Amino acid sequence: xxxxxxxxxxxxxxxxxxxxxxxxxxxxxxxxxxxxxxxxxxxxxxxxxxxxxxxxxxxxxxxxxxxxxxxxxxxxxxxxxxxxxxxxxxxxxxxxxxxxxxxxxxxxxxxxxxxxxxxxxxxxxxxxxxxxxxxxxxxxxxxxxxxxxxxxxxxxxxxxxxxxxxxxxxxxxxxxxxxxxxxxxxxxxxxxxxxxxxxxxxxxxxx
Length: 207
Fold this sequence. Notes:
Number of strands: 8
Structural class: alpha+beta
């Protein structure tokens, strides 16, 4: 895996040559550092990292990167930027307008939101994950929830399948964990689409 070390002084920003990410050290001391991580045209990820902690960031063109806090002081921090996957982050924009692509009603939107929260709880309770993996999964599940308010049913299913595929690849889940994650997802979204289960299983089998 390719990696890069980055030293950032408090209240300054540095650009990672490897990832293209711009990382700002908003605050740092001997216990933790508060970072803002992003790229032009993409939302910032705000994260507070103690020594040894890491966060995962997907890019649209260079793959997925882990940003790990390697050293701390009252004036700066040292980060290790590692490319953990060459798979690009999935950003979908769908325009299918057939009858199977009608918007969700308010009751369905509420149930999708509830299903997402159940998935989060089950993932945290039942799967053995690093904090950076759990953080990525939570963020991508939130994208699935937000997508239900923007897209029709068919487009949302396609988007969700792509996001779940990205989670499996970019969070570097082992086979057993990926299988368990897909099973949790299927069991909570089976009420919505009868085709969701085989589609997501096909997503996993392509890993």
